[in-house]
Each structure stands twice: as structure tokens, then as C-alpha cells.
Design brief:
The protein contains three helices and eleven strands. By secondary structure, it is of the alpha+beta class. The chain has a domain of about 150 residues. Strands 1, 2, 3, 4, 5, 6, 7, 8, 9, 10 and 11 form an eleven-stranded antiparallel β-sheet that branches. Strand 1 and strand 2 form a beta hairpin. The longest helix has 18 residues. The radius of gyration is 18 Å and the shape is globular. About 25% of the residues are buried.
């Protein structure tokens, strides 16, 4: 899918009245804290797919991973299968898992969370995502951190949860990468909003183009006893977006 297809903000956004960006972010932070307190654990399956085309030709790889999350900040990954380029598997896919595990600790989460300590926010308007109204905000990082990003976020107007992100990293992840565009989508699973599809396209300095897609499937979620959904399951929250 071309990167231009990601940008849903082409059509005029609806005007928002009666709420400010500060109030939206405050409710987002509050609801995220509540959801984090309720979420005990989840398991899911991910499928990674990357295609690189450049001066050395074309390389492609796939990896399937089982993910186990346990509150408050533990993630374990089990690689189920790999195929294609071993270079991509070892230097890209497994590096992504290492970076995610690093970002999962509480200290990293605090420094990268969607808060006014880490970002400047500007309310742009309102738009619907699959029939649900969402506030659209521009965000700009306050620090040059490779785990932060700049761009747009869509916050569900009912649950005050992130529904979509279209952005670029605040800092290039590597000298060899000249530009990266990212697109993340989230779906509601029981009480929780969890990743459904991640996409990124990267331009390589010496020539070349990489397309990465991560699909999330088979969530099994365990919440704190007494909440609305102690256990909720969905077989597939992802949508196939790469052609």
C-alpha cells in the first residue's frame, strides 16, 4: 500500500467545540491508567512481514511470534516460525523484539507515554473511524528520543483511547535510514484497546525501500476480577492492508 493511502486527513475534519486538547489528553492519560490497572495479562500471535527492494535486489521475510504480557510491564516473546531472508529475521525482526522489550519497562513507558510531559498537542478536529467519532490531534515530541514520534493521533471520543497513529519517529532509528513513515491501528478487545495492525515504510540512504507490516491475531485477555470482562477473546483483530 502506498504511503499516501495512509493519510486519512485529506478530507476536512469536523470542528470540535466544548473540549480542549488539554482536556482530551488528560482524559486519555486517566483512562489509560485505569485500563492498565485492570489488564492482568494477555496472549496474542503476531505475523511480521518485510519486503526490501534496493540496489542489492529484493529480499523478503516472515516471522510468527507468540506474545505473552503480564502486568505491570512484562513481555515475553516466542518465535514460532521464520522464513525468507535470515538477514532480515536476525537484524530487523529480532531487533524489533529487543527494542519492544526494552520499551516495556515502567521507566521507559513513563518517558514515552502520550502525556504533556513528553509531547505538545494541538487539536485539529474530529473524524469517524469505523463509525466511532475520534478526536484528531497533532503531536510534537519534546525530546529527541527514538521511541517518540511526531504526527497525528486519533483518540476515540467515547473511551478516550488511541485508535490510530500516523507519524514518523522523532529520531532516525539508524544512520542508514533516511526517512520512516509509520501507521498504527488499534481495536477494542473487551474493555481494552490493543494493537491490530502496524505498518511502516522506510527509505534507505544508499538506495532502497523497505515495507514492514505487523498483524496481531488471537488475543486472549485476562482482566482484574470484577471488571466488565474478566476474560475476553477475539480470533483476529487485524485487517490485511498490504497488497
Amino acid at each position: 500500500m502506498p504511503a499516501s493511502a495512509w493519510m486519512t486527513g485529506q478530507a476536512p475534519l469536523q470542528t470540535v467545540t466544548g473540549i480542549t486538547s488539554q482536556e482530551i489528553v488528560s482524559r486519555l492519560v486517566s483512562n489509560n491508567q485505569r485500563r492498565n490497572q485492570l489488564l492482568q495479562r494477555y496472549t496474542a500471535q503476531r505475523q511480521y512481514h518485510l519486503v526490501y527492494t534496493g540496489i542489492t535486489g529484493r529480499r523478503e521475510a516472515d516471522m510468527v511470534v507468540e506474545v505473552r504480557y503480564k502486568a505491570p510491564a512484562s513481555k515475553d516473546f516466542t518465535v514460532v516460525s521464520t522464513s525468507g531472508s535470515s538477514l532480515i529475521v536476525n537484524r530487523v525482526f529480532k531487533k524489533l523484539l529487543e527494542t519492544e522489550k526494552e520499551a516495556a519497562d515502567e521507566k521507559s513507558q513513563a518517558s514515552t507515554a502520550l502525556t504533556e510531559e513528553n509531547y505538545k498537542f494541538e487539536l485539529l478536529g474530529q473524524e469517524e473511524i469505523e463509525g466511532r467519532p475520534s478526536y484528531v490531534l497533532m503531536l510534537d515530541p519534546k525530546a529527541d528520543n527514538r521511541l517518540l514520534y511526531r504526527g497525528r493521533i486519533w483518540i476515540d471520543a467515547a473511551d478516550f483511547a488511541v485508535a490510530r497513529i500516523e507519524a514518523e519517529p522523532a529520531k532516525r532509528p539508524s544512520f542508514w535510514i533516511s526517512h520512516t513513515r509509520i501507521h498504527h491501528e488499534y481495536r477494542k478487545v473487551g474493555e481494552f484497546w490493543l494493537p491490530a495492525q502496524n505498518q511502516s515504510t522506510s527509505d534507505v540512504r544508499l538506495g532502497g525501500h523497505a515495507q514492514l507490516s505487523i498483524s496481531y491475531r488471537s488475543y486472549e485477555v485476562t482482566a482484574v476480577p470484577g471488571s466488565k470482562n474478566q476474560v475476553s477473546t477475539t480470533q483476529d483483530v487485524s485487517r490485511k492492508m498490504w497488497k
